[in-house]
Design brief:
Two copies of one chain form a homodimer. Chain A is about 30% helix and about 25% strand. Chain A is built from twelve helices and 17 strands. Chain A is of the alpha+beta class. The longest helix of chain A has 15 residues. In chain A, strands 9, 10, 11, 12, 13, 14, 15, 16 and 17 form a nine-stranded antiparallel beta sheet that branches. At the A-B interface, helix 1, helix 11 and strand 16 of A face helix 1, helix 11 and strand 16 of B.
């Protein structure tokens, strides 16, 4: 089976590594020269819209998928006329626009933070009146890892930040006071078979995911699964999907979803019977899904901006390193380390040992600083 | 870290897949065009002795290893003058000649089947007198998967088979009546740290490994570990080593050892915290070794000669497929499937389901035939 991937970042890289072990073949299309896939499969460096590049992709693929959600949906629609594109363009469209994403959730009865569409200064003023402050203002399209958003704490902030973000359609989201940020990775096969991974509890640093950990018998597991199931059924979804939630005293609110394998599911490479990458490939190839049963307790720490020597990490028992072959740059995800343990106490000890050997995403600090204020 | 591999078969392929996930880079040298490594790393198709090829390998490598044991040792000695070769030429030399291998075991007090060196018809006659019949006659060098050996059952067989095998140095081995064929994969780091995998119980078909399974609390585990430890210490071994044993009522006899990752350890990819491939790389790179703790009960079935559709195998719960990207040919190892379960009973059920979907190494048969006579 030949698989075409739109995008050639580290998610594509890990798909290719998982898939080539199964004897699957790949080609990727990505406009960026500096790819993580490197020479692991055939690749083409061209704009997504290039007709010749799309023809090349189609020729060498039985099914097409993508490794990030900002691929032009027009391209997916075009490809879908000739071969299966999984997950489909509908899922991508729903997530590319934060307003549509929230509206979809509302339609499905899935709780989200209160929101308003904002295109003008006047609309922002009424959003502040209706939703109150603090309030978070985001671009409806684009933006990731905390980019494309500002937090308005007081009335004066509207004027102060308006110019930095205005000019494109925006969405204002009411402030949500939450206990934890969690995410669930789920997978659905061509036949509708659905599996869920253990919930990951996520800690960010400077807007970038820093640590994901899985707790045994997480109290939000069942609720997260039920929300993911209804979203996947609605989208007739095929492949891996990831939902991010705020856990509030009143229950889970969906923050956003990603129609793809996800950073917060990297622990599954060693921490689950079948990794999110293998299961995504099984799903899009129409193969039976693999078990998502956890193997012990797991965590994942991102390596951002610089890579420690492998030996310093592998000294910590239960750890495995994943380096993406990317050139180091501040704020860039260069790799991650997974770690497993048999007890929560031992897992926390190992996470702490790893943390002391890794520069956090926001860079080195003289003193540990208090956690970022939590916001929605 | 850059790794040079002599040989580019499926063992090199699985090393490369494990290593690239860790961000290691590889180049391979192998005279065969039809390699399993394919485009997964830089490779050179030249004789092992080619000075230009060896220069190319050296340039792009911080350490050199090999994926099979018939590399000319002269090449390893030459490379070892400029960079570490792990495991070393000593291990390779010991295993390339079955007579030297047996003599090494004897020196270490490790039990082996009775043997005699045979170069002439007269020596064969006295070997038969001393060791009795049946007796197995093997070439001292070369030969694998049952090739390069004949079984002499009665006196007349000596004359009958002499011409098919004579002309090269031979070894005659006395017949050993054994209960099981087992193997152990072990790994030793640069610092002498040593880990052992769970014993695999091996079933062959037409001289080719067909099924390896791991039993919980295998009664021969401790004895196998102790033999492997003394051999590794003697050779100051670095990397993964595999020892094959006959289990007899009097204890274990070493049949042979392989100074490399091994087919009977493929179950470790999903069945152990750290696979044999990752641990071999960790060892030769001087990194801390990973845990060899088993994850449930495991088995591995080889896919020889033809590949079933992936879906037929993946329907069996707990299974994962590994296809090597090789052209199908009768008797050729094209892939394998691993399977895990929580109980022996469930594991046996899953093995039986997989067996019914796989052509055995010796080919399809109309009726199940009785097991091959066991021989040493």
């Amino acid at each position: 089976v030949n698989i075409g991937i739109l995008g050639a970042g580290q998610l594509a890289r890990m798909m290719v590594l998982a898939g080539r072990a199964m004897g699957l073949e790949f080609r990727t299309l990505d406009p960026k020269e500096d790819s993580s896939v490197g020479d692991l499969c055939e690749r083409c460096v061209e704009p997504y819209e290039s007709p010749a590049a799309l023809e090349w992709l189609r020729e060498g693929a039985d099914v097409v998928t993508f490794d990030f959600e900002n691929v032009p949906t027009r391209v997916l629609h075009e490809l879908a006329q000739q071969l299966p594109v999984r997950p489909g363009a509908a899922a991508l469209e729903a997530t590319q626009d934060r307003l549509h994403e929230k509206q979809l959730m509302q339609r499905l009865g899935i709780p989200v933070a209160p929101f308003r569409a904002v295109e003008t200064r006047a609309e922002l003023t009424s959003a502040i009146q209706e939703l109150g402050l603090p309030l978070i203002l985001k671009t409806r399209r684009g933006g990731y890892d905390g980019k494309g958003q500002v937090l308005l704490r007081e009335a004066g902030d509207a004027g102060k930040y308006w110019d930095t973000i205005a000019g494109v359609p925006l969405i204002a989201e009411g402030f949500v006071s939450f206990e934890r940020e969690i995410s669930i990775v789920a997978v659905r096969g061509v036949d509708g078979d659905t599996r869920f991974y253990r919930i990951g509890e996520n800690v960010h640093d400077s807007g970038i995911l820093w640590i994901s950990r899985c707790r045994p018998n997480d109290p939000s597991q069942a609720e997260a699964e039920s929300i993911a199931a209804s979203l996947m059924a609605e989208l007739d979804y095929v492949g891996v999907i990831t939902l991010e939630f705020f856990e509030t005293p009143g229950g889970l609110l969906v923050n956003e979803f990603a129609p793809r394998v996800h950073n917060s599911g990297h622990w599954s490479i060693e921490g689950s019977v079948t990794s999110q990458f293998e299961n995504h490939l099984r799903a899009i190839c129409g193969l039976p899904l693999g078990s998502t049963r956890p193997l012990g307790l797991s965590a994942m720490l991102n390596l951002v901006g610089e890579l420690p020597p492998r030996g310093a990490l592998l000294e910590v028992p239960g750890s495995h390193v994943h380096y993406y072959g990317k050139r180091p740059r501040r704020g860039r995800k260069l790799g991650h380390v997974t770690v497993q343990a048999e007890s929560e106490r031992e897992l926390e000890r190992r996470i702490a040992r790893l943390q002391s050997r890794i520069v956090p995403p926001g860079g080195r600090r003289e003193l540990p600083r208090p956690e970022e204020p939590r916001r929605a």
